[in-house]
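agent> fetching stored inputs for the NAP docking request
agent> found them:
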Amino acid sequence: MRQPRQVVVLGATGQQGGAVARALRDRGIPVRALVRTPEAPAAERLRSWGVEVWAGSWEDPASLDRVLAGADALFGITTPFEGIAAEVRHGIAWVEAARRAGISHVVYASAAHTDESTGIPSFESKRKVEQHLRDSGVPFTLVGPVYFMENLLTPFALTRLREGQYVRWMPPEKTVQLITVEDIGRFCASVFAHREDFLGRRVDIAGDALNAPLLAAILSRLLGRTVQPVSLPLESFPVEGELGRNVAATLAWMARTGFHVDIPALRRQYPEVGWRTFAQWAEAQDWGELSR
Ligand SMILES: NC(=O)c1ccc[n+]([C@@H]2O[C@H](COP(=O)([O-])OP(=O)(O)OC[C@H]3O[C@@H](n4cnc5c(N)ncnc54)[C@H](OP(=O)(O)O)[C@@H]3O)[C@@H](O)[C@H]2O)c1
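agent> prediction call returned; pasting tokens
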């Protein structure tokens, strides 16, 4: 097993990139992060973990070239938050930079099932980045996470929890597969450490699968207050702009088809990840004034 000399982590001030940087550090693999705001607290936190922080942006090819010089591996993400077209442009920018730098392994955290016909704009954009990566000749691994457990920590979800509700836009009995970003980090670090086993592969990953009543029951037990599962019709989802349409398409697909990763097989094949259940993740959170 040959560990990479140095991994450049994109999006390290965010959820997935941060988890990957921590997991690589835990394996003793040196990390460089490209960040837009080097003076931000999130960048300071990276430095406290021993991460080299480099200033730059996916919009600035020269900054990508600088941070990749001398590194041998790259963790990449893209987001639709600045637009679907920008997601494709950003991904192509760092794939091209990886090609110029002669990077020997790119791990791209995409989303589960982007290789299927989902009709979700941000899955289509990720598929375009994946295709560009495949065509680039840069050795790669695609990692496809399902719905993040951390989505429960968004202001909207926390407000509803305070009101004793767990809200979803799908039938209550519909099971949703979940993963914690910590396990995305651990899995990706393991992919970097076992490069040969993962080259050219796509692995979709999930840690748990629950319907709304089960999830609400776990929260009720943990928070010491009743949390009711609330199912809203998809038509009531507030669709605003391109991102709103994207979330609505994601919810529609989740209700219709949904994530369907083979969780038992993952647990068997990659036990070192730990694969936390929703209950384990929720127990580890500080719910503050939400818990009685
Ligand atoms: N939530 C889910 O359930 C789920 C499930 C599967 C897949 N996904 C996908 O996961 C992705 C989001 O990942 P995440 O939650 O880790 O994102 P996140 O926490 O919002 O972090 C995004 C990171 O990207 C950086 N970034 C954004 N634009 C940049 C640019 N132009 N140049 C340099 N850095 C830039 C941000 O830097 P700054 O700190 O400077 O902003 C931040 O570090 C999305 O594509 C989403 O579709 C989400």
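agent> quick read of the result: The two ends are 48 Å apart (CA to CA).
agent> awaiting further instructions
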